[in-house]
Protein 1
Amino acid sequence: MLGRLARWLRLLGYDAAYARDADDYELLRRARAEARILLTRDRRLAARRGLQAVLILSERLEEQVRQVQHTLGPPPGPPLSRCPACNTPLIAATRAAVRERVPPYVWRRQTDFRLCPACHRAYWPGTHVQRIQATLAPLSGEGET
Ligand SMILES: [Zn+2]
């Protein structure tokens, strides 16, 4: 249910695991085993004892991100430090290493590439950074001075 939120939190630098098909039991077990804070829209689940949980209130992505930032504080890592698809920390990659993995026009123009060592997706600052800034600028409530 919160898959989009998980992707955005990763882009921001949060360590956000996402369990697509897990049932409640598996979610609770994993949250406890990995000492994670469970983000859920399920009121019953959020109220379980012995669990750190945040009940996500809004259905709108921007408000969900804002609630997480407000509740948990700033992310532990910089933006674009985790793979938005699978949450693995990204590694710096040479242009040669990503040649087969990015569109030719991107490969010609970009020099700063990162690679996910788990799912092998390649990332570059252009579009992702712009999307983050466009979406989150109105959220932060503080202008550049
Ligand atoms: Zn990945």
Protein 2
Amino acid sequence: MNTHTENHPFDYDLFVIGAGSGGVRASRIASQLGAKVAVAEDLYLGGTCVNVGCVPKKLFVYGSHFHEDFEAAKGFGWSFDNLKFNWETLRDNKTEEVERLNGIYDNILGNAGVEIIRGTARLIAENTIDVEGRTITAKNILIATGSWPRKPNYPGVEHTIDSNAFFYLEKLPKRVIVEGGGYIAVEFAGILNALGCDTELVYRGPLFLRNFDEDVRHFIAEQMQLKGVKLSFNTQIQSVAKQEDGSLQVSVGSAEQNEVRVVDSLITAIGREPKVQGLGLEALGIEQKQNGSIVVDDNFQTNVPGIFALGDVIGRMQLTPVALAEGMALARHLFNGQAINMDYENIATAVFCQPNIGTVGYTEARARELNYSLEIYKSSFKPMKHTISGIEEFTFMKLIVDKDSRKVLGVHMVGPDAGEIIQGIAIAIKAGATKEDFDSTIGIHPTAAEEFVTMREPVKE
Ligand SMILES: Cc1cc2nc3c(=O)[nH]c(=O)nc-3n(C[C@H](O)[C@H](O)[C@H](O)COP(=O)(O)OP(=O)(O)OC[C@H]3O[C@@H](n4cnc5c(N)ncnc54)[C@H](O)[C@@H]3O)c2cc1C
């Protein structure tokens, strides 16, 4: 259904607030389906993922891992001296790539016929938006404003930096604390440690990566410690004070005691909140959850007709491919009459810590909660590369199988390229593969991934 007609009462068929993952996808598809579309953006094209998320993060992970690769190379006969790392080169090359991607997004939108309006958008009435003094009307409005780092509130928090600023650090800190227990904190700690910073991760909970499989959480904690990251769980930052030499005195407390650390930088990654401030939601009575995220139905419709929301701002699964899929589904629904059937089951994810985590399907705890009767397969081993690399790193794999249907309900891995490996396995899981399908698949030798099709003995209950 194309709502655009010559004598249209509105300026646009669709007005999108936010040119991030979800907003760009929704506007591009809507425009290609014949709608008249504009998108407002007040910071950067491509949103969090391109500018201060997935892309720069992964480039930093690549950059930092070379350190270990050079070490590993010695076991294979290579020798070299005078190895040097230059932070500014990595940071600036990353920024150059991000800017190239900003340009690509500009082109993608332009070529699709989407009008880009630079500025902060605010809802002022149903079907009406203000962009810095300009009033615009639209039949449909999509809020795709994403999320923003949450700030802690202890004294001295102004001396800390958030995940956005991490990507533009002027100098690489010699000593650093990363605060948080989510995947972003874990990835940042891995990057900084691998770049040679004296790195401590401080988290108030008993173990990081809540919602990941328990075995995976313990295994990656061990691996990170083997690589030199100090992990301080059940520990809270109480205050930060800046010293004359520019270093930070950080007071941390646990049940046992209070301690003081002196570091050059404290990076906070304690979670993200929906970016809704100043959007005008309250005035229109748009329903929000307690944490501010926007409440929508299965069609991404808010309680106000014609106003939709998706991506991080609705607080479902805060991942780029999810925002993309939601944006595509909404555009096809509004302008092609297609039903929205967003399926949030079995979405594979990776954590780009070192080594990586890759995961799809249920954790063991979740499968037990759902009363499945389970067969669990586990394997941990030293990957072939590290038999002579001299690097102490191990790989872990786990399969969670439903005893009754024989379906594989969950697959978890900690090891090099776990994200790449699990992406392939996710297709099998989505297709409903059984343990017998895994068993009858011939492995690729020698790989680590072949272990997934050769695990024969379940762990004893
Ligand atoms: C450090 C980090 C690492 C991440 N790594 C991964 C990863 O490896 N894999 C993965 O899948 N996901 C990752 N994510 C999550 C991913 O970036 C987000 O889930 C995704 O970007 C959400 O897309 P979105 O469209 O909802 O919002 P965003 O991409 O954040 O886009 C929102 C846009 O709206 C703009 N905006 C906000 N308010 C207004 C306004 N009032 N007017 C105009 N414009 C406005 C913002 O400037 C922004 O550009 C990471 C996130 C972070 C922070």
